[in-house]
Write the C-alpha cells for this entry.
Amino acid sequence: MLPMHRSVNGDRLQHTLEQLAYYSDTPAPAMTRVLFSPVDMAARRYIRDLCEAVEMQIRMDAVGNLFARWEGVAPDLAAIAIGSHIDAIPYSGQFDGTVGVLGAIEAIRTLQGTGERPLRSIELLLFTAEEPTRFGIGCLGSRALAGVLSPAELRLLSDETGEDFDTVRLAAGMTGELEDVRLPEDYYHAFIELHIEQGPILEREGIPIGVVTAIAAPATLHLTVEGEGGHAGTVLMPDRKDALTAAAAMVLAVEQIAATNPSPDAVATVGRLQVFPGAVNSIPSSVQLDVDVRDIQGPNRDAILDEIRRRVHEIAEERGVKLEAVLVNCDPPATCDPRLIHVIEQAAEELRLPTQPMVSRAYHDALFMATLCPTAMVFIPSHGGISHRPDEYTSLESIVQGVEVLVGALKRLAW
Ligand code: GLV
Ligand code: MN
Ligand code: MN
C-alpha cells in the first residue's frame, strides 16, 4: 500500500467540473445532456481528452461505454474499475454522475503524482446512458456490460422519434458488435463508484462520507392508454373515452398505492406523459406514461408493482379505454461487498473523515457492476438532499474529500 498523503488538487477538479458543465442543452445551472446528443458527444470528447492527456489507454465499446486504463505493472491481474456517468436528465444539476467521473480522473492524476505505478491497472469507466431519458431504461451501458440487457434486447429499444438503438449508436460513431459488449466475470477485481448522495442524510447528520451497503430495487412500467379522440366541442361528455382523464386516474392511483404502502421506503412516480395528438381542442386519443417504482426490499417493490398493475387495468375497464402495460425493467436490489466497504471505511478513517453506512435509494451503474465483481459506493453530501434539479449542489470540499477516500481505497486495492 502506498503511504497516505493529501494531494488531491481541488482547483484542477473544480476547473474540470466547470468545463464539463458547459456541455448542456439548457442554460446553467440547469443541465440537460441526453445520450448521443451533440452536447453529450462534445462532453465525451472532453473526458477523452482529459484521459489522453494523462496517457491512459482508451477504448470504447459498441454501446459507447468508455474505458480509460492506467496500466499497472502487472497487467495480467484484473483491474480496479472506478467511474460513473455524465449524461444528465432534462433540467437537472451539475453533480449527479459527473463527480464520479471527474473525481475518478482526479484520483488517477493524484496517484500518478506519487510517481509510483500500481500493481493492478486502474480503469476509469464512463457508462453510457445511466439515465433513462432517451431509450426509457436506466443504466443502459452497465446493464449491457453485465449481460443483463442482451444484444437482442438492445436492438428492440427505440427513442421517442422511433429510431432504434442500433441505428442511433452507429450514427453517433459507435463501432463494433453489440455481442462483444458483455464483460467476462473475472474482468475486474473490484468496482467503486463515487457519487453524490442525492438525499438529505449526510448533510443533516454532519457526516462527510457515506458508505453504501445496498442499492434499492428499481422498476419501470410503461403504460399505453388508447381511448377515442374527437372534437373538443362536439363530443358530449357521456360519449367520451378520453385517454388522458383515464391516465390521470392512473397517476393518482400510483401515488395513492405507494403513499399507503406500509414501507416508508416505497416510492412511485409518474414523471412523463406523452399525450396524442396534443391539441387544445382535441380529445386525447392516446397517452403513454412511465411509472417508476422503488423500494429497498425487492419483494415489497414487486407487491406494489402488482397492485399498480391490477388497479390501472381496473381503471381502464371502468373508463372503457384499452391499456397495454409493459414491464421495462424490474431489478433486484444489490448488496455492496463487505471487504470493499471495509477498505473504504479504513481509507476514510485514515483521513479522519467520519463515515456512515447507508442504503442508496437512487439507482446507479453500481447496481449492475455488482453482478460482475465486488462493488461498493462512496457517497458525499448533497446540499438540502436536492438532486435531479438545477439547484443540486455539493461543495468542492466534500467532493475533494470523496476523491481522497477514493484515492485511499485505490492505494489499498491496486498496490
Ligand atoms: C438515477 O438517476 C435514479 O433515477 O435513481
Ligand atoms: Mn440521476
Ligand atoms: Mn447518477
The domain at 10-216+333-414 is CATH 3.40.630.10 (Aminopeptidase). The CA atoms of residues 86 and 402 lie 17 Å apart. Residues 131, 138, 362-363 surround glyoxylic acid (ligand 1) (CB under 6 Å). The first strand starts at residue 31 and ends at 33.
